[in-house]
Amino acid sequence: MSLPNYLAPKSCIVNIRKSTSRKFSVVRAEVTLAPKRTRDLSKQGVSIADLRVHEIVERQTQPHKLITTSLCNKPQFHPCFLKEAFENCRKICAEYAKTFYLGSLLMTEERQKAIWAIYVWCRRTDELVDGPNAIYMSSTVLDRWEERLDDIFNGRPYDMLDAALADTVSRFPLDIKPFRDMIEGMRMDTWKGRYKNFEELYLYCYYVAGTVGLMSVPVMGIAAESLIPAQSVYNSALYLGIGNQLTNILRDVGEDASRGRVYLPQDELGQFGLSDKDIFSRKVTEEWREFMKHQITRARFYFNLAEEGASQLDKASRWPVWSSLILYGKILDAIEDNGYDNLTKRAYVGRAKKLLMLPLAYTRSLSFPLK
């Protein structure tokens, strides 16, 4: 699992079926893009109700409750100490998430610092599994990391970078559940190397990337003139994380295979006449190309779902989100340009192309209608 440039740590597409309950609209994503030569590939994702996302949204859209609790636990840091803590977060974000960092510079200073602090925590969490010390990973390490997260939310940071997040949760209505869910995704990486269907893969993508969207919305803010429910904005943020993670998975198929991991639905591989053996052999066959077309279409669908919410964020926060949407789409384009060979090649978007996309993302962030 690798960390995407849009905050998150290895983050389908399809028709939307909606059902309403007494308070919340529940959205279920289903893949209905099967080639005619195969049987129906329709696979349900995990409903937002099952993920209990609406509970997170409800708490994070009632800021007084969360912030009042956070203020009770707010540690008292010397201003110079906090300044240094956030400067360290800024440097890490600038080094490892260059495009997103540039977009974050349009935000207010308070939002900048908060989003950098969240990014750093996500990156550190991801590196427990994929970093240089990952060989020492164990369930005990993750248990301790979760205890440390509890300490952050209770105003007892362990180090300077934790202190930046502790200060952030005292200023913004951030619920702890998305952070805990991300740690759960790391746990999955310690024991699970196969996903039998899309529902399992979707859940993994939610844990390691969809959660980032849920963390980010309270910091980025929803535009005062937005006319859609806050739940819809959060849904879109979750879908952006899902799309990013699916794109990372498609980009890194060869790299993951070298570590014995296959982040692809096993049943869908079978329906295209493929198996793990074909991945490990690194042969790009016609069956593989057809399979990849299906997976790319799915990822693009989630990006399409994310666009609605991107336009509903506070105006100063939209540019980094639109940058992520456009640049991750270019990774999918690069896979296609490589003849769907993501077994021996890594899709790459060059710096020049990235820079050319930034003005487009900025324009979209300004002109996309709020309705």
| Major sheet characteristics | 2 strands, antiparallel
Poorly predicted regions: 2-6, 8-43
The general outline is globular
Q: Which class of secondary structure composition applies to the elements?
A: mainly alpha
Secondary-structure element series: EEHHHHHHHHHHHHHHHHH
Task: Count structural domains.
Answer: 2
Q: Can you name the CATH architecture of the largest domain?
A: Orthogonal Bundle
CATH homologous superfamily of the largest domain - what is it?
A: Farnesyl Diphosphate Synthase
Query: What's the total count of β strands?
Result: 2
Output the number of helix runs: 17
Percent of residues in beta strands: under 5%
Question: How does this structure look, described?
Answer:
This protein is mainly alpha-helical and 371 residues long. It has two domains: 73-175, Orthogonal Bundle (Farnesyl Diphosphate Synthase); 192-370, Orthogonal Bundle (Farnesyl Diphosphate Synthase). 63% of the residues lie in helices and 4% in strands. It has 17 helices and two strands. The chain has helices at residues 48-51, 53-60, 63-72, 79-96, 98-104, 109-130, 139-153, 160-171, 177-191, 198-220, 230-251, 253-257, 266-271, 276-281, 286-310, 318-337, 351-367; strands at residues 14-20, 25-31. The protein has a two-stranded antiparallel sheet. Strand 1 and strand 2 (25-31) form a beta hairpin. The protein is globular. The two termini are 36 Å apart. Residues 2-6 and 8-43 have low confidence and may be disordered. Belongs to the phytoene/squalene synthase family. Its EC number is 2.5.1.32. Pathway: Carotenoid biosynthesis; phytoene biosynthesis; all-trans-phytoene from geranylgeranyl diphosphate: step 1/1. GO terms for molecular function: 15-cis-phytoene synthase activity; geranylgeranyl diphosphate synthase activity; squalene synthase [NAD(P)H] activity.
